[in-house]
Design a protein that fits this description.
The complex is a heterodimer of chains A (about 425) and B (about 90). In chain A, β9 and β10 form a beta hairpin. Chain A is about 10% helix and about 25% strand. Chain A has about 425 residues and is of the alpha+beta class. Chain B is about 35% helix and about 5% strand. With about 90 residues, chain B is mainly alpha-helical. Chain B has three helices and two strands. Classes of the chains: A alpha+beta (about 425), B mainly alpha (about 90). At the A-B interface, β1, β5 and α2 of A face α2, β1 and β2 of B.
């Protein structure tokens, strides 16, 4: 490995995607998710933390990510498709330090099977190595080799080579080894196997996921979590149900008090990747699977004292957090950390949305989904009008349930607004 | 003997090697010529980065590699501390 000679003094770096690829098949949500995973690849080996900040954030992020073409005001003009793919600037005090540029004329892909295009995750991991202070390496399995080596596989599973880890630890020291502060970066790791129940104890009855009526639904690092009572199911980005058997809520979310019997809403906060679980007039903040601090009152997010929520989601179009109760909703500015004035407003502004939804989440393609009962309403990316074919039965599409039999006994969707 | 690279290849090769830090940028006042040994060493280092046989000449495989997709940053940084891992030779 080679060290550039510069390194960040701080251990938490902020980042933002300032411009997106114009012609790529990758949604903005997917680009942001891939950048998050690429940064986290370095974080898990060094203890560095990366926080995505919105465009309203007063301070300029440490790492600004752009997709640009040809001459773009730095000394590394791009050369069209092929040739040079990207570059990044080493750490430092200069405003461009850490910034990372990708050639917008490349065909950026993710997980392409036929080797078509250029794998954005692989190139992003390489470039963020520079943004942290590494130069190019000649080690055969290093991600810092100067030439593009093709995709590196699933971002959830990818791990840096020894050469890259050694170079990184020269710069930032070894990652803390104690189990509690060893950061996880993969999708939240499965919980330890439950202790064998004493033979005479009745095994807890588990709910039927195909009935729907979930308490909360959230997209957490590309996986969709479906919460119901003291259980939850997980669906991977590929749409694969992790297990038909639900996982135990309190075993997985370490520190969630036993008195919390139902999670009424949940979402992953884009600014720092923390997961917020809502129950009653409070919410709990988790970093990965560990509880961070005491429960917070919903009044912090702008709701009146004693109010509860049916649904919470963050809308990538404006980085705002929407909190829904019945036919009303409030809006919270995550970046500015304050409620937006002029709320609550009527939910009918989301044309076609059902009142008091079980929860709302934004899928990996950037579309917004309202869930209620055994149905979902789909809003295309950026739209506040439900698709005309909404609602649709959710079990078959989301939870690997049998296709609904049409006919008089099919469950009728609840009335929408 | 490997065929001699064409003058154009040598010119393109030297430009590429200079761009990515293997050769010092040319200095018009000094007009220092690149000694053949320096050029050969530069080519060898580039071949190591590329995982090619370190022949020290601009053979076709080396020239082809110079057209492969890559990162824009130089491979050899002036002040870089190139860490060579000493391989303990087992007797």
């Amino acid at each position: 490995y080679a060290l550039s000679g510069s390194v960040w003094k701080k251990r938490t770096l902020t980042w933002r995607v300032h411009s997106f690829p114009k012609s790529s098949a990758l949604s903005q949500e997917m680009v942001r998710t891939l950048m998050h995973h690429a940064l986290t690849t370095w974080g898990v080996e060094s203890g560095l933390k990366f926080q995505e900040v919105g465009s309203q954030s007063p301070a300029e992020p440490d790492i600004i990510i752009d997709f640009a073409r040809a001459y773009h005001q730095d000394s590394y003009p791009f050369d069209g498709q092929g040739g040079t793919l990207a570059h990044a600037f080493f750490p430092g005090e200069h405003s461009i330090s850490g910034d990372t540029h990708f050639d917008d004329e490349e065909v950026w892909t993710y997980g392409s099977k036929d080797g078509e295009g250029t794998d954005l995750f692989a190139v992003a991991v390489h470039e963020f190595g520079h943004a942290l202070g590494l130069g190019h390496s000649s080690a055969p399995d290093s991600i810092m080799r100067p030439f593009y080596q093709g995709p590196v596989g699933d971002p959830h599973k990818y791990r840096l080579s020894q050469d890259d880890r050694e170079g990184l630890q020269q710069l930032y020291g070894k990652v803390p080894q104690t189990p509690y502060d060893k950061p996880t970066r993969k999708p939240l790791a499965p919980p330890p196997p439950p202790p064998a129940l004493p033979p005479d104890s009745p095994s807890l009855p588990t709910p039927d996921r195909c009935e729907g009526n979930f308490d909360a639904i959230a997209n957490i690092r590309g996986e969709t979590f479906f919460f119901k009572g003291p259980w939850f199911w997980r669906v991977q980005p590929s749409g694969q149900l992790v297990s038909p058997r639900p996982a135990r809520l309190h075993r997985f979310w370490e520190g969630l008090p036993a008195r919390v019997r139902v999670v009424q809403a949940a979402y992953a906060r884009p600014s720092d990747g923390c997961i917020l679980l809502f129950s009653g007039p409070q919410f709990w903040v988790f970093r990965d699977r560990q509880l961070e601090g005491a429960p917070r009152p919903l009044t912090e997010l702008g709701l009146p004292a004693g109010e509860e929520v049916d649904a919470v989601f963050s809308w990538p179009q404006n980085g705002k957090t929407y909190l829904i109760r019945g036919r009303r909703y409030w809006r919270y500015d995550d970046a500015a950390r304050r409620p937006d004035p002029g709320y609550p407003r009527d939910l009918s502004l989301w044309e076609g949305a059902p009142p008091a939804p079980d929860d709302v989440t934004v899928g990996n393609t950037g579309d917004t989904y309202f869930f209620k009962g055994a149905h979902y309403w789909r809003f295309l990316k950026g739209s506040v009008k439900a698709e005309s074919d909404s609602p649709q039965p959710m079990g078959h599409k989301w939870l690997d349930c049998p296709a609904p039999s049409a006919g008089p006994h099919a469950p009728r969707p609840p009335k929408a607004t | 003997a490997a065929e001699e690279p064409s003058a154009q290849d040598v010119s393109l090769g030297v430009d590429w090697l200079t761009r990515y830090g293997y050769l010092p940028p040319p200095h018009p006042a000094q007009a220092q010529l690149q000694s053949p040994a320096k050029l050969r060493d530069a080519i060898k280092v580039m071949q190591r980065f590329a995982g090619l046989p370190e022949t020290g000449v601009l053979d076709p495989a080396t020239m082809a590699t110079m057209h492969r997709p890559r990162c824009s940053l130089p491979d050899v940084l002036g002040a870089a501390e190139l860490v060579r891992r000493r391989r303990r030779r087992r007797r």
